[in-house]
Structures are given as C-alpha cells and as structure tokens.
Amino acid sequence: MKTNRKLMLALLGSAALSAAQSAVAQTTLTMSSWVPPSHHLTGTVLQGWANDVEKATGGRVKFQMLPKHPSAPPGTFDAVKDGLMDLSYVTASYTPARHILPLMPELPGMGDSSVVNSVAYSRIYWKHFHKVGEYNGVKLLGVFTHGPGQMFTKKAVKNINDLKGLKIRTGGGIAEAVANALGTSAFVKPAPESYELLKSGVADGVFFPLESIISFKLDTVLEQATLFPGGMYSSAFGFFMNEGKWAKLPKQDQDAINKLSGEHIARFAGNSWDEADRKGMEALKKSGVKIVNADAALVKEVQTRSAPIIDDWIKKASAKGVDGKAVLAEFRAELKTVAAGR
Prior knowledge:
Elements: H1 2-25, E1 27-31, H2 40-56, E2 61-65, H3 76-81, E3 87-91, H4 114-129, E4 138-145, E5 150-153, E6 167-170, H5 173-181, E7 185-188, H6 194-200, E8 205-208, H7 212-215, E9 224-227, E10 236-242, H8 243-248, H9 251-259, H10 263-287, E11 290-293, H11 296-319, H12 324-339
Parallel strand pairs: 1-2, 6-7, 6-8, 9-11
Antiparallel strand pairs: 3-10, 4-10, 5-8, 5-9
Helix pairs in contact: 2-10, 4-10, 4-12, 5-11
C-alpha cells in the first residue's frame, strides 16, 4: 500500500509539474492594427505572420488581435513600447522626427513594386540603419514598404497647374513634402479617415497605393487616378514588439520568431501588398475612375520639384552619421538586384 501510495503521489507530482511547465511555456501576445480588419495589413500580413509563428513554435506562442487599436495611429510606437499592446507596426511617415533614416524608401521614383522596394530597403536597413538606433525601445522584427504611392483626385489633372491649391490628404513624411512641392495644400490625416474626407469635400484628393481603392472604398468618391513610374512616394513601415515581452520568451521561441523576421517579413508583406495593389487596379478599372499615366512633362516636374526633398534626406542622414548619398546610391542598386530576382 505504501509503495502504491508513493507511486500515486509521484505520478500526481509529475503531472502537476508538467502542467505548470506547459502553462509557463505558452505565451499569448496581443497584436493591434490601426487599419480595418478587412485591410490586408491586418488580415493577411499581421494575422498570417502570427499564424506562421504559432506553427513554428508548436503553439507555445499565440496571438490575440485586439478589437480596437489602443492609440492614435502615430502613437503606435510608444503604445507598444509602453505595453498597451505587444506587437504592431507604424509607418515612418507618421513619426518623421523619430524615424528619419526609414524615410529613404519613401522618396519618389523608387521600387516599381512593394516586394522589390521592401526587400531592397530591408537589406539596406539592417546593414546601415539599425545600429543608429531609431527603433530603440522596442524589438524591431522587420521593415517593409507599401507599393508605389499614386495620386487620386476628385477632378481631372492634366498638368502641374491643375494641382495648385488642391487639398490633398497624405500620411505625412515624404508624401506630404512631395505634395507641397507640387503646389497643393497638403495635410496629414490617418488613412482610415480618407473616404469621409473626400466625400465631405475636406479633401480634393489623396496620395495612396492602389490597394487603397478597395481597403478604404475610394472608388465612389474619385474621378481620376494619376500614375507615376516608381510612384510619387512610398510609405516605410516598422513592425515591432514590446521589449519586455520579447525578453521573457524562451530562447527557442525567440529563435523561431527571428527566422520569420528580417527579410522574411519584407518579402511576405511586399508580396501581400503587390497582390492587394493588383486587386485595387482591377477595382479601379471596373469603377469608371479615369486612369491616367502621368505624361513626360508632369513626371519631369515631380522629379525636379522633389529633388530638394531628396537632398534634405541626404543631409539629415549624414547628420546621423550615415553617408546618405552613398547609401541612397546603394539602395537604388539594390532595387535593381532584387528586381532581377537576386
């Protein structure tokens, strides 16, 4: 009887220890997105990446998408840093004073697709920018960009004079600077507000990638889409995690997440955005919105007027200890390398 009792106690103790270890090993992290659940950034990029992490960690790391973003979009970095949620993302356009170097891939005429721009930017970022520390305070998992940013207006635009005084909503950063340089009255508002801004007449147009036609239901409030080679701008995103939560993860789970970070995130998000842009173009064609490829004169005006914006970024990058001119040239070369499939 004593032997059986000891065996029973040992088994119970082992089961309790195993359950305790299992409970400790499983971690649930909160995620949040400031665009709607229907947006591919939320449903495909964030949720898709989270699903891959859950599989890679054997279910030890799980994620919960918060029903409401706990801060204004520009406050996302601090919200993650302060622990209001564990993972999220923000575009450098919303935080241009803090994230200066990430504005590089936002400059006009860069990648012709999100995946090319994202992967090239990721390679340059981890090689030259990360050590500067503009994402200090969070665990940066990856960087990427959206597709070429184009101009959508409620009136026909034929030349540079047609842009004078138009009220254009942008996300800030390089897009705002380009819009101002073209003579518009640019202002900054979060992307999800764009439909109402256009419908109410507060905005005469917006700067966005093509996917926004579907994501923000803009086809019914626009007259023209003006497309520029390489885009008039892009938006660069940082995807990051609360440092304290990262530090508490077991090393095997950190290793699994690291394998799905860096260039993996850039390629994953870039491919997703290119597919969303493709669908956006299809919706644009069906909507009856006039699609215009900017003529040579307008392209030249954009290039000429945005040249000081590029020079300004080079100057600010150099003030951070980065050879802005050389790194920008390297980035442009990397764009060609990635576009060639390397």
